[in-house]
Structures are given as C-alpha cells and as structure tokens.
Amino acid sequence: MKYLLSVLLTLVTACAVAAEHDLVIRNGTLYDGSGGPPVTGDIAIDGDTIVRIGDLGQDSGRREVDAKGLAVAPGFINMLSWANVSLIEDGLSQSDIRQGVTLEVMGEGFSMGPWNDSMKAETLEKQTDIRYAIEWTTLFKYPQSLEVCGLSLHDALFVGNGTLRRHVIGYENRPASAGELAQMQALLEQAMREGAMGLSSSLLYAPSMYADTGELIALARVAGRHGGMYVSHIRDEGDRLLESIDELITIAREADVPAEVYHLKASGQANWPKLETAIERIGQARANGLAITADIYTYHASSTGLHVQLPDWARDGGIDAAIARLKDPATRARILSEVTFRNGPDSILLVGFRNPELRKYIGRRLDELAAELGKSPAETMADLIVEDNSRVQVVYFSMSEDNIRRKMAVPWIAFCSDAASMAAEGVFLNQSTHPRAYGSFARVLGKFSRDEGIIPLEEAVRRLTAFPAANLKLDKRGRLAPGHYADIVVFDPDWVRDRATFEQPHQYAEGMVHVWVNGEQVLRDGEHTGALPGRFVRGPGARGD
What we know:
There is one protein chain. The protein contains 18 helices and 21 strands. The chain is of the alpha/beta class. Strands 1, 2, 3, 4, 5, 18, 19, 20 and 21 form a nine-stranded mixed β-sheet that branches. The chain has a six-stranded parallel β-sheet with strand order 9-10-11-12-13-17, with helices on both faces. Strands 6-7-8 form a three-stranded parallel β-sheet, with no helix packed on it. Strand 2 (about 40-45) and strand 3 form a beta hairpin. Helix 6 crosses helix 7. It is globular, with a radius of gyration of 24 Å. Mean pLDDT is about 95; it is low at about 1-15.
C-alpha cells in the first residue's frame, strides 16, 4: 500500500509540476533588468504574461524558441520618441522594433491632445508627406485611434505645456492670466485622468518657451498629484545650460514632482566643459532627495529646425510669424544683421524640406550651399525657411564625443531616439533624417557596451528597461519577472550594432533576433512578422475606465 501511495504521489506531483505554455524561450542568457549579472534559464509565457522563469523542468511550450548563446531581456523603453505622426502612417515601427524597443514615450512639449478646432485646422494645413484625418480632441482619443489602425509596440504620452498654451492662449508671448492658468490646469487634470504620464515642456520653442517658471510649477503640481513626472527640453543647452538645469531642479522641488531632462547635452564647443558641472548639480539635487533623472541619444549631433538660429524676437509667435517677418524687407534686414549662429554654418546639415523642389539640397551643409548660391549663410538660411514655408529640419554637429561617453557612464541617465519611428521604405524615404531614428539603442548595446566597454551589458539593459519603467511608474513592465507583461527581446550581444549614418540614415540596426510584445511575436529571426499587439500604456493617475 505504501508503495502504491508513493507511486500515486509521484504521478500527481509530476502532473502538477508539468505544464504546457503558449511559449517557452529556452537556454537564454537572461538579463532581467535589475542590473545584476545574467543567468542562464528558460522563460514560460501564457497569453500576454510571463508565468515562470528559471529551470522549467518538464514544462513545455506550444511554441518553443531556443535562445542558446543569445541575450534575453525586457523590451526597451524609448523615453523620447517623435513617432506621433509616423505611427499613423505605419504602425509596424520598424526602425525601433528592430532595435528592441517595445514602448514609445511621446510628447516633448507638444502632444496630440488636448486640441481645439483651430489647432486641428493648423495641423491639417501643415501636413506634408503623411496626411491624416484628425478625429480626436482629447489626448486619450489619439492612442485609441492608433490602436484601431494597429501598432506593433506600446505608446505612452506626456502632455505638452506648449499644447496647453496653444489651446488656451495661442502663440502670444505673455504670462498666463489666473483664469488662463486655471484652464490649462483643468485640461492637464483631464489628461492625467485619461492616462498621461505627466507634463512635458520644450522651452526652446514657441509657445512652450513663453511659460515662466511659476507657470510651469503650477502645472507640474497637477501632474505630481496624479503620480506623474515633469520632463523638459530645458530652456538652453548651451550658454545658459546650468541656469536652465537650475530651473528644472526648482520646478521639481517646488512642485514636489519627479523631473527629467530631455536629451541632456552641452551644445557648442565653448560649453562642452559645462557638462561635468551639470552632472554634478543634478547629482547634488538627487542627494538632497529630489528624483531628478535625464535621458540621452547616443550621437554627438542634434537635430531640430534651422529657424532656431534666428534671433529670439524674430521667432516670437511661432514659425508662421517668423516667416512673415522674413518676407518683410525691412524686418528681414534687421534679422540678418542680428543673426549670430549658435552653431557654425559648416556644422549644419540639411535633412528635411516640406517643399519637394528644395529636397535636392538634402545632405548639403549650409556653408557649402551658401557658397554655391553666392549668398551669405544667413541669407541662405532665411531664403530656405521662406521658400519651404517651414522651420527646415537640420542636423547640428554641436556636441563632444567624449561628453557622450561621460553621459553613458552616469547611472541615472536613460536613453531615447528623439526621432520618429520609421521604415526604410515608402514615404519615409522622401526625406533624410538623423541616424538616431535607426540606431540610438543598438549603439548602447554595441558601440558603447560591447565595443568600448563603458558600461557592462547588464547595466545597459537596466537603463533601457527597469530604470525608465520605474521612473514612469509603469506597472508590470521593464523586468523579466513572473506576473510581468511579456515584452521580451532576444539579441546577439556579439553582433548587435547600428548601421545608420548621417549620409545614409535609412538603414536598420542588426543583431536583434526576436521581439515579443504582450506575448505576441513581432520580430522573428530579424524580420518583422506584421503583428500589431501594441497598447496604450496609461500613467499612474489613470482612472481605469
């Protein structure tokens, strides 16, 4: 009898332990996101959730993937994406998926809601290669519309203070009245309840730049009450870098809110030595109890509009107002007399035009084009902005490679692309772009971790996953752990690398083998499957309805 009971117990135990899962990833080198050393093991997934990690014993999977010799990690988080419009055109998000990104965080000072009728009309009028209907008004309706079309990865949204200002005040350069500030706070309150991650600002650009520190504190308090963050493209990344960081620290302290510096940099060679002081000031604020962090893209060149080289007063009221001033002969003469290039014309690469007739200049440096046209760089700049009826997208070679390496080593810095999510095909090939759109995350793993040894791979993974997830207060994301969502990447640590260059940016990164989003495979053996399992990831203040 004892023998029979023993046999029965053994059989029952075996049946209880053995299970069939939807997916089993076997023999991978697991980097769980904690920053600790990797271990070799298996992962079992049912539905959209990780259910077991380690030695799975007799467990099996309806589908099994052998990851022997490959790194397995949580999906990566892009802390600053400009995929707002590109995801409407193409939800596959190839340039980021092929680097292991499974979550795009969008909304640097400008967000896709809340919008009013005049904002919708302005946006429709300025559409170029990608044209789309605007069938939403509130922030939440925008990701809902994306999900209807389908996404391969997740999206999360910040509310731009510039969007709030446009909604309530327009492009007027003046302080908000008490009533106007209350309106902006109410709009932000609604967006936070809908699932926004917090408040963002982009203080180099109109109308975001017209908000003073007090206004930003008042708005950031609303975000903070809902568990959100304040994230900022600070007012100046060059001559007044340190003062601008001090403002962000003040906002974080007075509003009692976590804060992050978008794409931390010291722009312009004369300012490169300031980076160390900037890091020290943020470090001191952290030591004093403030939750201050930063993110970076992994290149020594930035990208924005050519119009930022105009005097501040000439940009007052936004790009349309600036173009109108450039069309007036007397005002144009004054503008040209006051142009002092923040970045030398030889460091300015032309990459994007609205006017197809000007696209022949893509890939040219401003100084070279000016010499060819027989004009000064300032005149050439003014003519291009007017003829393109836009800010003209350019790349600025303004940063130090050594500073990039210094920032890579800082443990409280995450990573971003500061670019759209693109495909190396179709409408995206009408323009050039910054290579960060295709390579920013692959460079973390390849160039800076493997090749230069600045940070170990486990630390690179932490800062791509669990670290930003914790800052955003995301539930069940950013770690390989039972109960967490199955956003998982598998890559070859010996091969992963970026291929995009400034001359030929539309080139996918290599070395990412498999990617799952919510347990559904979107990248298999380096090729996109066409799957669209992405979701809108809500912030901690969401109501849940």
